Amino acid sequence: KMGMGLKLKFDMTSFCLKICFKLVVALFAFAQTTAQSYPQYRKLNAKLNQADSIILISHIITAEHEVRADKRIEGEPEKETTLPNDSLLLFIEGKLNERVVTERILLPETRIKELSSILLKELKVNKVIPVKCDQPHHSIVIYKNNRQSYLDICFGCQRIHSSPDIEFSHWDMNKQKWNRLLAFFKKAGIFQFIEE
């Protein structure tokens, strides 16, 4: 009987070790899948961590997203659209257009870490489906070696447009992240175009 008890104990230990090993392998595979599922997080994380400086701005609606009348609805033949007025673009020749900026806050390093924790928090549930207004009034502008990357944000319809080097969008956000980002802008001192 004693030999049977030792054998049972050994089998149980072996069983537990096998289960633990399988859990470790599964967790490792999950971590790899998650990292590969969110490559835009890696790009944005690198931009935020290596930035020379980061500013938050509020701005008027820029030509990239302004509302234009559809002439076809008014009965006129469709005309070739003209390029937007340069003075209303958010960026001109890769530089922030200061004429559209209404508020500007330079983020200290401690606030950059907080911003990272908001934007890079892994999505689990509650993805938000944006509405169609798409009129961004706020941006996060990231400076590195005299180059600028950005996230252009519409809190009203919960949409984000980013520079091509970041590839981060509203599909990378959920309700909790949107609420935290809005509170972050307010806490930093950006109040224009934010509804209470």
Question: What series of H and E elements makes up the topology?
Answer: HHEEEEHEEEH
Major sheet: arrangement of strands: 4-1-5-6-7
Instruction: Give the biggest beta sheet.
Output: 5 strands, antiparallel
How confident is the prediction overall: mean pLDDT? 77
- SS elements, strand count: 7
N/C terminus separation: 75 Å
Number of helices: 4
Instruction: Calculate Rg over CA atoms.
Output: 24 Å
| Range of helix content | 25-40%
| Uncertain segments | 24-37, 68-83
| Sheet/helix structural class | alpha+beta
Percentage beta strand = 15-25%
General shape: globular
Task: Describe the overall structure.
The chain has 196 residues and is of the alpha+beta class. The protein contains 4 helices and 7 strands. The strands form 2 sheets. A 5-stranded antiparallel β-sheet has the order 4-1-5-6-7, with helices on one face. Helix 3 (109-119) packs antiparallel against helix 4. The radius of gyration is 24 Å and the shape is globular.
